[in-house]
Amino acid sequence: MLWSGLALLAMLACGPAGAAPAHIDDNLAQARLAGKGSYTWFGLTIYEAELWVGEKGYRADLPFVLDLRYARKLDGAKIAEASAEQMEKIGAGSVAQRAQWLARMKTIFPDVKEGTHLSGVFVPGGGARFYLDGKALASVPEPEFACAFFGIWLDPATSARSLRSALLKDAAPR
After folding, report:
1. In the chain, which ranges are continuous DSSP H helix?
2. Are residues 51 and 33 in contact, defined by beta-carbon separation less than 8 angstroms?
3. Rg of the chain's alpha carbons, rounded to an integer?
4. pLDDT tens digit string along 134-152?
5. What are phi and psi of 60, to 5 degrees?
6. pLDDT tens, position by position, 17-33
7. pLDDT at res. 13
8. 23 backbone dihedrals φ, ψ, rounded to 5°
9. Which domains does the chain have, with CATH numbers?
């Protein structure tokens, strides 16, 4: 009886299993987890990624949230540089745009440690909003930047194809 009481208290404290964190619910009506996966580099897990979508699922003209929970300490400038490199690999933006985006990302992305959450909200036609551990971090009101940034994970040309497949696993409309 004690264990079931403790389990009930844990559920009440944490909310229902699979419920979206508050900052995701605030940005995405009827949020649901579409998929999740890990990004590894030479066998080391860098982060766990989750894609949250609304009732209409994932489409490039609908809002969604990508949440990354870091598995290790990383420098924010290095995160920005890796993001710009991946944007280039998928063919997003011009050289000048990517240089501007890199400068902007270096001002946005903080150093992270194990357990840090960085969330990005895709706002169709309105750019991107970023959150650090559920708290507002920055907005980039540039649609081309948002498409390039989220393309790192969701563009068919991504270098992380298995992660893309895992994120889109249950992204169809319901």
Report:
1. 2-14, 22-27, 76-89, 95-108, 143-154, 161-167
2. yes
3. 17
4. 999 999 999 999 999 999 9
5. -65, -15
6. 568 999 999 999 899 99
7. 37
8. -65, -25
9. 17-167 (3.50.70.10)
